[in-house]
Amino acid sequence: MDQELANGRREGHAALDDPVLVRQAGVQDRSGPADHGLTEARDLGDTTRIADIVDRWGVDLAHGPYADLVYEAAAELPLELGENRPGLAFRFEDLGRLPIGTTPVTLPRTPDEARAEFGRNGDLRLRQALVPLATRRRLGRYDEALTIAYAGSPLAEANYYPWYGRGSQILPYWYLQAGITCLEAGELETAERFYLKAWTYRGRDPYGFVSRDIAGKLAILTAFTGDHVASLEWLDRGRTAGRRADLWVDRFVESTLGCAAAMEAVDALAPDAERLLLAACHPGQRDGHWPIFVWAHVQHALAHGDVARARRHLQDAFAVQPSWLIEVGLAASLIPLARAQTHLAAGQANQALTELDGAPDALALTRVLRARILLLAGQAEQAIEIIEAMLALETTGTRARTEALFVAACARLTSGDRSGAVAAARMAASAATERQDLRALATVPRAALDDLAADVPSLPPLLGALDERGIGEVYPPSIQLVSVTEREQDLLRELTSGQTLGQIAEAHFVSVNTIRTHLANLRRKLGARSRDEVLAKARLLGLLDKTR
Question: Is 349 part of any domain?
C-alpha cells in the first residue's frame, strides 16, 4: 500500500489505473488551465469533453468566473453522460435533472482504503463529494449531509502531508464545507472542530477566499457561543485574509464577517449595532446562517423594547424560508427560542413555554430561558434547580453560562439567599465585563441588580452603562404563569368561536354544568369575572394559541 502511495506521488497524482481520469488530465493539458477547456469544448459541441471537464473540474470552475458556464453546460448535457462520471451526475442531481441519491456517494471507509484512493486519484473524490454535500444541505437533508461529511474524513486525513501539492489543495475547502454542514445541522462543537482543521490547512487555499471564509465562520460561531475574545481575533484574521471580490461567493463571505461584528455590537449594546446588522444580514436572507441572523436581529429589537419589530423580523424570515426548513437543523433550536423570547417580552409566559416544548437546546440557551420564566413567575427555587444543573455541564456555552449566572443571582436573592446571590452576581458581572455583554444584564429584573450592586463592585459600572444607553428591562419584572388542563385549553378555543355553552356541551356529549365548571376554573385561574374577561386575559397571556 505504501508503494502504491509512493507511485501516486511520483506521477503527480495522475490516474494510474483509471482511464476516465487519464482522459480528463489530457483535456486540461491540451486546453489550458483557465477554464480547463470548457469554453472551447462548448464551442466545438464536444459533449464528451464537456462531460469530462465538468466531472473532474466542475467544483473548481463553480468557484471562479466560469460558474455560470458550468451550470449551463450541466443543464444541457444528455443524462446518459453522467454514467461513470459521478461528479457530473451529482451536478445533474443538484440541478434537479436526476432524483437526489441516484448516484451513490462512494468514499473510502478506512485509512488504508483512503491512502490507496489518494495514491490513485488524489483528492478527486473529495472534490466530487462536495456537490452532493452542498445539495443535501441546501435541501435541509442534514442527516444525509452529515453522513457525507463524516464519510469524507478518512480521505481528508490521507491528504494530510504538505508535499502532496496540488493533489490535496481541496483540503481546507472540504473541512470548511463539512463545518458549515455541521453548523447548519445544529452540531456546533463538531462544526468548530472542522473549521479549525480547515484553518490548519489554509495555506492550500485553492480559490483565494477560503482563509477569509474560514475565519469569518469561526468569528460568527464564537460570537454566537459568547466567546468574545476569540470572536474578535477571528474577525481580525478574516479581515486581513485574502479576498476575491470578483467571485459570487464574496457576498456570503463578507456577510458572515459583518454579522459576527454586528453580533458583538448587539451584545455590547453599541450605538452602531443596528447599522452593522442592517449592513450585514437581513432576517430573510437566504444563507445557511439565517437562523443566527434572525436570532441576532430579535435580540437587538428586544434589548431596545421593540417587541413588534422582533415579531416583524421573525415574519420576514418565515416569508422567505421554506416552512420545512424552519423545523430542522439549527433553525429548530433558534427559531423557537427567538419566538419564545419575543412572547416572554410581551408577558406571554405560557406561550413562551409552549414554543420551547420539544425544541432542541442550543448551547443551553433554552434552559436559561425556562429558568428565567420561572424566576419572573415567582418560582425562584425551580429556577435555581435548572441553573445549577446546567452550570454543572461542560457543554453549557459561555453565553448561556453568563445569562444563567444573572438568573441565579436574582433567584437566590428572591429566595432569601443573599450570600449566594452576591457570589453569583460577582461571577456574572465578571463574565459580562470580559465578554462586553451588557445585554445580559437587561434580561433579568433591574431591581434585583440594583439591590446587589452595593456588594458587587463590578456591577455599578455595568448598570451605569445600561442607563447611558437608555436600555431598560427586556422582560417584565414579573409575569403570570397559568397552568390549564387540556380540556380547559379546548374550551378557550371554542369560546372564541362564539358558541354558547350549550352548543359546546352538545358537541362534546357532556352536560352544560360540566362546561360551566371548566369555565369557572378558568375564571379562577385567570382572575376573571366573565367569559369576555376570560378571553381577554387568555389572549394577553398567549393561551389562545398554544400550538407551535
Answer: no
